Amino acid sequence: PWPRQRPAVLGLALAAGLLLLLAAAGPRRWAAPPRAARRDERYLARAEELTATDTEDSTLNYGVVVDCGSSGSRVFVYFWPPHNGNPHDLLDIKQMRDRSSRPVVKKIKPGISVAAAAAPEQATPYLRPLLRFAAAHVPALKHKETPLYVLCTAGMRLLPERQQAAILEDLVRNVPLEFDFLFSKSHAEVISGKQEGVYAWIGINFVLGRFDHEDGESEEDAVVTVALGDQGESLVRKRTVGILDMGGASLQIAYEVPDSGAFSSPQQEEAAKSLLAEFNLGCDVQHTGHVYRVYVNTFLGFGGNFARQRYEELVLNQTYVHNRLHGQQTGLSPEMPFLDPCLPVGLEDTVMRGGQTLFVRGRGDWLACAELLQPLLAGPNSSQASLVRAYKAPIDFGNSEFYGFSEFFYCTEDVLRLGGRYSAPTFTSAAQEYCSQRWEVLTQRFRGGLYSAHADQHRLKYQCFKSAWMYQVLHQGFRFPLDYPSLRTAQLVYDREVQWTLGAILYKTRFLPLRDLRQESIRQAHASWLRLSFVYNHYLFFACILVVALAIVLYLLRLRRIHRRQLRAAQLTLLWLDKVVVPPSQGNGP
Questions:
Q1: Where along this sequence does the record place binding of ATP (predicted)?
Q2: Is pLDDT larger for residue 97 or for residue 582?
Q3: Any alpha helices (H) in 380-438, and if so which ranges?
Q4: Which of 70, 168, 455, 460 has its CA 20 to 30 A from that of 413?
Q5: In angstroms, rounded to a whole number, what is the distance separating the alpha carbons of residues 411 and 462?
């Protein structure tokens, strides 16, 4: 017979072995891949961004952003895989591409502020073509979990608040009746110029990988020390880039301010509040690794084309005043033109303002042009912001990096072919050489294909002026040193145009990783007893095997000893029976 102690001993041995095995396996934790592997994955991801999106992959998530601008509206479709499980990483959001590998984007004209200003009920029909386009590209099974954001910019800002509210209300009420996207009142809004600048800054830095906070930054990664809160805490992380963007009408700058610093006056502190934005891009508000403080300012009237108009008005007024004071006829006829230092040599043009006409002829003096433009940095008029007097958060020019877009790129590349790394002496020399050329020589070079394919007659005509204006804005307005080595002018980042809508959806969806992290923790809690891993401590694993084997050996030895006792007891019992049994003959009488 088996002994009664067998279940207890065997259970104890197996329990001990199982507990040690579980201890060896331990909980699964997120482990960062080697730095080189992460870098290779990023380069691979950049190549994959140019390929068609795999809509058959059921794990992908989607998001739709509609940019309602002043001249038209565009819809962008984005996608991202499940979050990688590291709470310090952002979602890996990319722009969707169709089967032909083209970006999924569609534009319609005019702007929503024009199409629906008089009749707000036309807002939904106006956006219907864009939403149908997006719905056709997002898999139907994903519509109910795909967020839709309708973000309106400059055109809508010009409308009265009542009209803005009526247009947005029509969208919130009627869009869900036709489309299954996740869309609520908070998903439709008119964003400020400050928000637009922040979103652009987020998008550029995300594409450049400046939000990838690795456990240890590599030697080639520039870092910055960021002050956090009022407790004197600090954090060392990757340095972000600032952006400069000059359009036709406005100029914008955005850059991180690592140090909160002190203000020289209450007025300066008040001005800073409206220009500084502090936000957390991370999914957990308790983690400060993705807290950023960004200075954003937009200067209306400082764009390239608007600045030229202001310059022409200045020249016309000054010339007429000079003529009256000195009794001259400068600029009143083609025979006595005003010699404009901001136009190429020999180029003839006319300026007309308020019924007055000024005849001009270029004399191509770049230095004189730059000097004439300096007063324009004060602003279009007293009610507009002044570039020289506006509050600007301190820039550490010894540890910073900037990208210049739009006119900054066109000015350096289209004619001068100096796009990329900016050098003030090289740019100044090339701009002076261009301005000093006769107009006939420049047009001949243009016809000969010596300039960029994007250059046209308008660029040739105003390149001298715009190069001087860009120089003044950069070095006199924003006070960039002449030897500043870290400005790059660009049109594309990694061969693609980066829209502010990418930054918008990154910010709007920043809490979505919490959902994936919670689901993952629940799955691990339910299945952790099944996942035994021996990777983390193989020595402990062998110890477990040894303990289990030793327990089995001890148990078998104990079985053998007990079995021998039972055999010996049985033999003794038999002997005792032989001695005590009486023979039948002894029971009969005589």
A1: 248-252
A2: 97
A3: 407-413, 424-435
A4: 70
A5: 10
Tokens standing for residue 151:
């973000």
Q: Is the pLDDT score of 560 beyond 90?
A: no
Q: Judge whether 252 is annotated as a binding position.
A: yes
Q: Are 197 and 206 in contact (CB under 8 A)?
A: no
User: In one letter, which amino acid is 11?
Assistant: G
Taken as a whole, the chain contains a residue count of 590
Q: Is 497 a catalytic residue?
A: no
Q: What is the pLDDT of residues 43-95, one digit of tens each?
A: 444 545 678 999 999 999 999 999 998 889 999 999 999 988 787 789 999 99
Catalytic residue, chosen from 49, 161, 196, 335, is 196
Half-sphere exposure of 329 (CA within 13 A, CB side): 5
| Residue 456 vs residues 249, 417, 447, 543, 555: alpha-carbon distances, Å | 19, 14, 10, 78, 94
Q: What is the pTM of this model?
A: 0.77
Annotated ligand binding at 251? The verdict is yes
CA 392 to chain centre: 23
Residues 6+ apart with CB under 8 A from 535: none
Q: Is 248 annotated as a binding residue?
A: yes
CA-CA distance, 266 to 580, in Å (whole number)?
117
Q: Is 250 annotated as a binding residue?
A: yes
Cβ-contact 116, 123 below 8 angstroms: yes
